[in-house]
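Extended Data, panel c. Modelled sequence:
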Amino acid sequence: MQFCNVKFFIKYLRYFLFPISAVYYAVAGLRNVFYDIRILKSHRISKTKVIAVGNISVGGTGKTPLVQHLAKFLHSQGKKVATLSRGYKRTTKGYILAKDYQRIYEVGDTIGDEPTQYVHNLPFAAVAVAEKRVVGANELVKSLSPDVILLDDAFQHRAIERDVNIVVLDYHSPPWQDFVLPVGNLREPFVSIERADIVVLNKVKYENTVQKKIADFTRYIHAIKPNLPVFISSYQPKSLISISEEREISLDSIYRKRIFAICGIGNPDYFITQLELLGADIPTILTLKDHRSFDEEIIKTIQNEVKALNPDYVICTEKDFYRFRYASAYQHLREINNFYYLMVELVFWGQDGDYLQAKIMEKV
């Protein structure tokens, strides 16, 4: 089969999956109804406040930077903060306390990618993982008594009642134009956004049509839930840090430089766009599946590409860095010259950050 025919087949295969999507839609809807009428029970976690951050689609919308942003804000307000994640693709089971308020106990594959980032980026916070979030939250309260628990990737996890329910949407992927899995990328129908208390529209891009697109998002959201607050944010590149963590270089260092980009996140296009906006020349991109481990095969591929391309810099995402930081392959990657990861931060437009923080403080 020729390549063009393969592309044609993949493009139109999804239409044969509509019956499965119909079943998925019905099951997701029925599950939500069962929670709404309390056939399925949501548990209140005593002696703490719970903020859930999630999305309604698969892929990267920006939950992790938002969790970090909220954790830093709450800490600045004198709150004891804990994060609780499922620990997707980790090698362990059950409840694990990765870090308390004094010590680090676990990092890397035993807790997963995002919790490892929280361990490093939130030195003031406790970090835990548990498939059963109710168990994990109760363990955190019993052992550490946090003022606030941030539930990571938890919009669909309705077994825990929450004081604030935040949904993150991707500016580049309007959910009203999408379908539920497996035809599309939605975890549940767009109408489910009615459960949200706050929407953060992330990865918003400065362009001629930006105000119209923001207005479209707001109009469709308010058609489902009038007056639901919608706050606007973007990623802003912050710095480039060597994977040996020994030095940091300015962002303009990669202007007009040849870059070998490595990306294994839910939405790689946005990462590449950020590098291009910094003026980088990117002849080759190694795109990996989200949460893909850096095994011997991947390391060999990276080494071969570097040898063939001889780039000025090798740059990966922060999430990718923490994925291989604790892998056996880390030492081999450290031997590659000029290998950096891009640090980004979440930045809100105008006064949206202040308004979001005020909404949060009303609840906690």
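The two ends are 59 Å apart (CA to CA). This feature is highlighted in the accompanying rendering.
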